[in-house]
Design brief:
The chain has about 300 residues and is mainly alpha-helical. It has a domain of about 160 residues. Helix content is about 90%, strand content about 0%. Helix 6 packs across helix 8, helix 6 packs parallel to helix 12 and helix 9 crosses helix 11. The protein is elongated. The two termini are about 30 Å apart. The mean pLDDT is about 80.
């Protein structure tokens, strides 16, 4: 199965452009949305802060002017180099800015609270926009999985609506749910992470074999003929080898360019594990065709 999986991987390499196109489209849309929202919010925030500062300065102009006059008097402006040395050595600029805002806060009731409120609102909107952008990218990844499975598993798509839904919706959702559950388990049961990883691999293999049997089942093939220890071991071996292959490729690309590695490895990982499932399905289909031959010979 391992040799067949790699043959299938390179023979269908053109389908790698399916997840690439979808993932990149969603990432670009998410980045555009986030940056547009960020700059819009930043402009609005700067406007609110400017208005707050203008109103505060106007209502406390006497105190502010007195403080600025005092701060300016601390520097001997007669010689430019001496003035520059005093500013650097005494940390005058930082002290003046801090004192300016403290004066505003004392002279104008609520300036500090208003300033923090505006900044916190900007931070909350930014976090919310970032969450939307990440969710949009996650949707893109899921759609890329769906489209790639549809592209590489053409024989499944022609076996009726029910089997189509099983192959391309129910199974991917179950696999994603499995990954989420086992990742949560890994975060809680760290001491037994190896056992959790093994359990996840076995369960993923069971899901893959079960879905392949549901799609291609025939009277001559029973579930116990498909979900066997040997087939589970073969699935896990193929998945682990593809995982190592992806990891090695990611490390190599990371040294070349980290951003390029991340952008390329997401589509490659999606394509790779769709090929792993396709390999399982091809094996089950061969069992189905093998079970049909004796029946045909009897007829």
């Amino acid at each position: 199965m391992i040799k067949t999986a790699f043959k299938t991987f390179f023979r269908n390499l053109v389908y790698l452009f399916v997840p690439m196109g979808i993932v990149y489209l969603f990432v670009l849309a998410a980045v555009f949305f986030f940056l547009t929202a960020l700059f819009n919010d930043l402009g609005a925030t700067i406007g609110e802060l400017s208005e707050l500062l203008r109103v505060s300065v106007e209502s406390s102009s006497t105190d502010v002017n007195a403080f600025l006059a005092y701060a300016i008097e601390q520097i001997d402006w007669g010689n430019f180099m001496d003035a520059l040395r005093q500013i650097v050595e005494t940390d005058w600029l930082t002290a003046t800015v801090e004192g300016f805002f403290e004066t505003l806060n004392v002279a104008t009731e609520g300036f500090g609270d208003g300033f923090l409120s505006i900044v916190k609102a900007f931070g909350s909107r930014t976090v919310a926009n970032l969450a939307v952008a990440i969710a949009f990218c996650a949707l893109g990844v899921f759609l890329a999985v769906f489209a790639t499975r549809l592209a590489v598993r053409k024989r499944s798509a022609r076996r009726g609506v029910k089997k189509f839904l099983i192959a391309h919706t129910v199974v991917p959702v179950a696999e994603w749910a499995t990954i989420v559950v086992f990742v949560l388990l890994l975060s809680v049961i760290r001491l037994y992470s190896v056992l959790v990883a093994v359990a996840m691999a076995i369960f993923s293999g069971f899901l893959s074999l079960l879905s392949a049997w549901l799609i291609h089942r025939d009277k001559g093939l029973k579930l116990r003929d498909v979900v066997t220890g040997g087939n589970l071991v073969s699935y896990i071996a193929v998945a682990v080898i593809f995982l190592l292959f992806n990891a090695a490729l990611a490390v190599g690309l990371w040294f070349f360019n980290p951003l390029f590695a991340v952008l390329l490895m997401v589509p490659v990982a999606i394509y790779s594990f769709c090929i792993v499932d396709m390999n399982t399905e091809a094996y089950v289909l061969s069992l189905v065709e093998g079970a049909r031959r004796p029946s045909a010979e009897k007829d």
